[in-house]
């Protein structure tokens, strides 16, 4: 089994910063991609940022220039540094990890339990 555990969430004022961490453990040591998603009340879950095993990154347009994603492969941990936070960044942030066993094999996807981020104006 695989478990993803997020930490670092909390409440901050607009313009503040938070750093979220997600540590993976279990039967899979290395993931092809790790990512952060978020979900605001009444809205769909959306991709915030992702990073592949070789360091390629993707960001939602709304967070470009403010958020940075990184990973420590040795620790099987992914981080997101969130700067210049805005009230619209408020939501539950979920860690996601994908493992591709090989061509023609289905992708295995795992989720953390989520951590609350609240940005006050």
Description:
The chain has 121 residues and is mainly β. It contains no helices and eleven strands. The strands form two sheets. Strands 2, 4, 5, 6, 9, 10 and 11 form a seven-stranded mixed β-sheet that branches. Strands 1-3-8-7 form a four-stranded antiparallel β-sheet, with no helix packed on it. β4 (33-39) and β5 form a beta hairpin. It starts with a strand and ends with a strand.
Q: Outline of this structure?
A:
The chain is mainly β. Helix content is 0%, strand content 55%. It is built from no helices and eleven strands.
How far apart, in Å, are the first and last alpha carbons?
Answer: 40 Å
Q: What's the helix-strand series? A: EEEEEEEEEEE
Form type: elongated
Helix fraction, binned, reads under 10%
Q: Which spans have pLDDT < 50 for at least 5 consecutive residues?
A: none
Tell me the radius of gyration.
14 Å
Topology:
Layout: E1 2-7, E2 10-13, E3 18-26, E4 33-39, E5 46-52, E6 57-59, E7 67-72, E8 77-82, E9 91-99, E10 108-111, E11 115-120
Task: List the main descriptive attributes of the protein structure presented here.
121 residues; mainly beta; four-stranded antiparallel sheet; elongated
């Amino acid at each position: 089994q695989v478990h993803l555990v997020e930490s670092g969430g909390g409440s901050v004022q607009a313009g503040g910063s938070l750093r979220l961490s997600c540590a993976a453990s279990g039967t899979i040591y290395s993931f092809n991609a790790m990512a952060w998603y978020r979900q605001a009340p009444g809205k769909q879950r959306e991709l915030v940022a992702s990073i592949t095993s070789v360091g390629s990154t993707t960001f939602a347009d709304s967070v470009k220039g403010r958020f940075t994603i990184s990973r420590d492969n040795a620790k099987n941990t992914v981080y997101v540094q969130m700067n210049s936070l805005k009230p619209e960044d408020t939501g539950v942030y979920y860690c996601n990890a994908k493992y591709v066993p090989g061509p023609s094999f289905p992708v295995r996807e795992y989720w953390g339990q989520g951590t609350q981020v609240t940005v006050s104006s």
